[in-house]
Amino acid sequence: MTVASRIVRAIVVLGVLLVVAFGAIAPPESCPSVTSADIQRSSQAAVDWFVRNQYTNGAWLYEYHRNDDDTTSSEPYNDVRHAGAVMALYQAAEAGHPGALRSADRGTEWALDRLTERDDWAAVTVNGRTTTGTTALLVAGLDYRRAATGDTRYDDVMRKLGRFLVGQVEPSGAVLAFYDTGADRPLPNEYSKYYTGETYWALARLAKTFPDEDFGSVAARVGTYLATARDDKEGYWPPIADHWAEYGMSETLPLSDAELAYARRQAELWGNQARWVQQRFGPWGAVVRGGDVFRGGWYGVMNEGFTGLWRIARAEPGLSDLQASIGARARCIAGLAVQEQASASDAASARNPARVEGAWFFDEGETRMDDQQHALAALLRTQAIVEAGVPDSDDDDVPSVWLWAVALLLALNPARAAFGVPRTGREITWLCLVGGAIGGLAVCIFAALGDPLLDALDVSAPAFRIAAGVVALLAGATDLVRRPPSPDPALPGRRAALVPVALPLVARPILLVIALSAGADQGVVVSLGAMIVGVAILTALSTRVSPDGSSGRTLRWAARLLAAGLIACGALLTIDGILSV
User: Fold this and answer.
1) Which one, of 511, 579, 523, 533, lies nearest residue 274 by Cα?
2) How confident is the model at residue 222, as a pLDDT?
3) Where are the domains of the chain?
């Protein structure tokens, strides 16, 4: 193989890897800018949607299909989501949005007309079903109302609703989902994905409003259960990204070590979801991330999670390293939500503009009440982040220098590369040192390009870390089964022999891709250090170990061992990228 053909092949392989990395694994992300005024306008439009689409009995339009102006619902009216709408509107009232308080009060009366009451507690019962989540969101909403207006008219009912919630909490901190009004007792062994976090949040707020009641200790018990046991005990895998838990934790500061660890895991779960959404809106995101339109509820729950975590990170040193990253993700998702909300111009051509403007639609033009509820609450809570002027994320939560150094060294794989060094007698050392220096320089140049290149392409460092990890996994697996390279005796002269040392052996295409990610995370120094060590080992092996006989077999096993190590590093980098904010 000629020198030119070696160069062309290396360039082609590098090009294919970069196309796969930037094209499919880590495509560009869209992150529209958003201002405080944008959030105010969008929030008011959502409030106005609720006001226009509320029935005389206080309930709201539950489900709507804009394409055929159809209000037929695919499921019964959901009382938990009704209470969530009340809660979001009271949050809007606290933020000063006109119309929110009146609409929320009418929704509250709908719920209070359906109370089941006993001597010391009360709960909302709809169609014979008493759900813990409905009562929790209603009482949280009423607490917002009290804070916004100073009106104490609902204090007695809030206390009674809170006592019902206390009765639903088991000694472990688990929250029973339903109450059997016929048997007059909680329904045993029935739990809900989100009622636990909703109850935690409601009790945490009640503990501040009514410190004379036993709400605080029960809230703490639920918070501990969420952080340490809920996912395992109730069989959730993967773990739940629980925005309601974030609401609760942000009300119960300071947090225990276990709760801080749980908050960090929650940030990781939300970060992965946010990157996927942002990639979907990138230049070719619909091709590689699917063409589905996301519902308003998803934008909402993501940012309800992020905004709760941001408040925790601002107050807790144990999570402060993620504050900038969390804030940046929250601003970005808020920008996408504002962008995707139906505007007045969008609604002008609709069959029923009043049911379109201010809503978020998905699939075949469908929206549901909770799309507006979650999106509204999230926008209101993102306002503080935008107004705080949170700087762009510098992604402090990156893999250690040592992991990157080991990954780069294993991608070079000196034991494998030693087989490909041309055997030219006393010139082997010269070839390894000079060729290694040229190849190492190429790796460092790619590392230096990492940060500006990712910024220019709107690719986040965690996303490209996944791409680098996948490339490392595939490269390690290939090196395990593929024969080591052989030197080409036909290469004329020592200058020509530098090429296979500098490019295919040291600056391998896979190594250059990994260097881009390492440089974006840790800068050039780690790549330089790894290359110096790697070239030194390559030089020593090439000059002192024969590729033939028993020493050659030992060298092959060493190369396989290093390839297995590269697989492990690739897995760690991939997981780290997935779980980064």
Assistant:
1) 579
2) 98
3) 3-29+398-578, 36-387
Q: Measure the CA–CA gap between 48 and 67, rounded to whole angstroms.
A: 21
User: Nearest to residue 218, comparing CAs of 259, 167, 143?
Assistant: 167
User: Using CA atoms, how far apart are residues 275 and 155, in angstroms rounded to an integer?
Assistant: 42
Kind of pairing between the strands at 129-131 and 178-180: antiparallel
Q: Let me know if 238 is exposed, middle or buried by CB neighbors in 10 A (0-12, 13-18, 19+).
A: exposed
Task: Please name the residues in contact with 443: beta carbons below 8 A apart, sequence gap of 6 or more.
Answer: 408, 506, 507, 511, 512, 515, 527, 531
Strands (E), 232-382: 366-368
CA gap 516, 510 in Å, rounded = 10
Contact 356, 342 (CB under 8 A): yes
Amino acid at 195: Y
* Overall fold of domain 36-387: Glycosyltransferase (1.50.10)
Give residue for tokens 């990781």. Answer: 268
Q: What is the DSSP string of 415-468?
A: HHHGGGS---GGGHHHHHHHHHHHHHHHHHHHHHHHHHHHHHHT--HHHHHHHH
CA 373/CA 46 separation, integer angstroms: 8
Please, are residues 537 and 416 in contact by the beta-carbon 8 Å criterion? no
Return the closest-CA partner of residue 105 out of 62, 68, 36, 153: 153
What is the SS3 assignment for 122? strand
Rounded CA separation 63/432 (Å): 69
Handedness of CA 356, 358, 359, 360 (dihedral sign): positive
CA atoms within 13 A on the CB side of 113: 11
Whole-angstrom CA distances from 574 to 270, 322, 398, 404, 472 are 16, 19, 12, 12, 9
Closest by Cα among 170, 93, 91, 182 to 137 = 91
The alpha carbons of the chain give a radius of gyration, in whole angstroms, of 29
Q: What is the DSSP letter of 119?
A: S
Q: Which two tokens stand for residue 1?
A: 């193989």
Q: Give 368's strand partners.
A: 63
Q: Using alpha carbons, select from 213, 205, 79 the residue that is nearest to residue 146.
A: 205
- CA dihedral in degrees (257, 263, 264, 270; nearest 10)? 170
Of the CA atoms within 13 Å of residue 15, those in its CB half-sphere come to 6
Q: What pLDDT shows up at residue 392?
A: 59
Q: What is the pLDDT of residue 384?
A: 96
- Residue 140 near residue 195 (C-beta atoms within 8 A): no
Intra-chain end-to-end CA distance of the chain, in Å: 46
HSE-up of residue 376 (Cα within 13 Å, Cβ side): 30
Q: What is the mean pLDDT of each run of 10 residues along the chain (581 residues)?
A: 78 94 96 96 98 98 95 94 98 98 98 95 94 98 97 98 98 97 93 97 98 96 98 95 98 96 97 95 93 90 98 96 94 97 95 96 92 98 91 68 96 93 77 92 97 95 96 95 79 69 89 97 96 96 87 93 97 95 91
pTM of the model: 0.91
